[in-house]
Specification:
The protein has 334 residues and is mostly helical. The chain is built from 13 helices and no strands. Helix 3 runs antiparallel to helix 7 (156-178), helix 5 (105-118) packs across helix 6 and helix 6 (120-147) packs parallel to helix 11.
C-alpha cells in the first residue's frame, strides 16, 4: 500500500513537474515556440517509444532467459531511476518560480480551480485529458486478459515492445503534423480520438463475430491477432496524443499555475481508474472496452468544442482572473 501511495506521487510528478520545467526553461532561454512541439515529439519518440521498447525486451530477458523471476524488472528499474536522479541533480538547473507569489498548497489548488472554472478551454482540455488517460490506463489492465482469455501463452515483453513501436510511429506522425503551421493540433486530434475509439471496439466485434475457443493454453488465437492489430492502432493514437496534448497545454494553461492545474486534472482521472479497477471483475471485459470506447468518443466531441474556442486568446482570460482574485483578497492591515 505504501508503495502504491509513493507510486501515485511519483506519477503525478512525472506527468507535471518535468513538463512544467521544460516549458519554463524553454522560454527562459528564449527559444522559438515552434521548437517546443518538436521537443515534445522527440521526448515521446525516444522516451516513451525507443527506451520503452528496450525496457520491455530487457525485462523479458531478465524473466525468461535469466530466470530471475517476475520481480526482477522492477528491481532493475530502481537502478535506472537512481541513474536518472544522478543525471538530473548534476546537470539540471532548478526552477523556483516567482518568489513573490509563493503560496501554500491549499491556495494553489484554489487558484487552479478558479482558473479551470473561469476558462472553458482549460476545463475542456482537462476533461479531454482525463477521458483519454483514463481509457489508456484501463487498457493497460485489460489487454493481457483480452489477448489470452483461455490462458494462451503470449510473449508479454515482445507484445509490449510492439505497442511501444506503434507509439513511436504515432509520435513520428505527430512531429510532422506539429511542424506544419497549416495544420492545427485541435483539428487532427478529433480524428485521433475517433480512431482510438474505433480501435477499442475490436474486442467487442471479435467476441460477437468469431466463436470463442474453449481450448486452454496454446498460442494466441485468430481473434487475439485481430485485437492485437487494434491495440497497436490504439497505441499509435497514444503516441500522437502525448506530444499533441503537451502542445495544447502549453497554449491554453497559464505558466503561473501549469503544474498545479495539471495535477488538478489527475484527481478525477485517479478516481475513475480506482473505480474501474475495483469493479473490474463485476463486468465482462467487452463492457469495459465499450466504456473506454465511449469515453474516447466523448473526448472527440469535447475536442471539437475546444477547436471552436481555439481562436480566443488565453492570456486575457488569465489576466482578468488574476486581477479579480487580487481585488477579492482582503487587505492585511497591521
Amino acid at each position: 500500500m505504501v508503495g502504491r501511495v509513493l507510486g501515485g506521487i511519483a506519477t503525478s510528478l512525472l506527468f507535471s513537474a518535468f513538463e512544467s520545467w521544460l516549458v519554463a526553461e524553454h522560454f527562459k532561454r528564449g527559444f522559438d515556440q515552434q521548437w517546443l512541439s518538436l521537443t515534445f515529439s522527440k521526448a515521446i519518440f525516444l522516451g516513451n517509444g525507443l527506451v520503452a521498447i528496450v525496457a520491455g525486451l530487457f525485462g523479458n530477458f531478465l524473466v525468461d532467459s535469466l530466470n530471475l523471476g517476475p520481480v526482477s524488472p522492477f528491481d532493475a528499474a530502481g537502478i535506472f531511476l537512481a541513474i536518472g536522479m544522478a543525471v538530473i541533480l548534476s546537470s539540471w538547473t532548478e526552477n523556483y518560480g516567482d518568489p513573490s507569489e509563493s503560496k501554500d498548497l491549499l491556495t494553489q489548488f484554489k487558484g487552479a480551480a478558479v482558473a479551470i472554472a473561469s476558462d472553458e478551454k482549460i476545463a475542456l482540455l482537462g476533461a479531454i485529458q482525463s477521458l483519454f488517460e483514463g481509457s489508456m490506463y484501463t487498457f493497460v489492465f485489460l489487454w493481457t486478459p483480452a489477448l489470452s482469455p483461455n490462458d494462451e501463452d503470449i510473449p508479454h515483453g515482445f507484445i509490449f515492445a510492439t505497442f511501444m513501436l506503434a507509439s513511436m510511429l504515432g509520435s513520428s506522425i505527430a512531429a510532422r503534423l506539429l511542424s506544419r503551421n497549416s495544420v492545427k493540433v485541435e483539428s487532427y486530434m478529433q480524428i485521433v480520438f475517433v480512431v482510438s475509439s474505433a480501435s477499442l471496439l475490436l474486442p467487442i466485434l471479435t467476441n460477437f463475430l468469431i466463436p470463442p475457443s474453449g481450448v486452454k493454453g496454446g498460442s494466441i488465437s485468430f481473434a487475439g491477432c485481430l485485437q492485437l492489430l487494434g491495440f497497436c492502432t490504439f497505441e499509435a493514437c497514444v503516441g500522437l496524443f502525448w506530444p499533441s496534448i503537451m502542445k495544447m497545454r502549453s497554449q491554453y494553461i497559464p505558466e503561473e499555475a501549469r503544474s498545479t492545474i495539471m495535477n488538478f486534472f489527475r484527481i478525477p482521472l485517479n478516481i475513475f481508474v480506482c473505480i474501474v479497477l475495483y469493479n473490474v471483475n463485476a463486468f465482462p471485459i467487452t463492457v469495459m472496452f465499450g466504456m473506454c470506447s465511449i469515453f474516447l468518443f466523448l473526448a472527440s466531441i469535447l475536442q471539437r468544442r475546444l477547436s471552436a474556442l481555439g481562436e480566443k486568446p488565453k492570456t486575457e482570460d488569465w489576466a482578468m482572473m488574476k486581477d479579480r482574485n487580487a481585488e477579492d483578497e482582503p487587505l492585511n492591515v497591521t
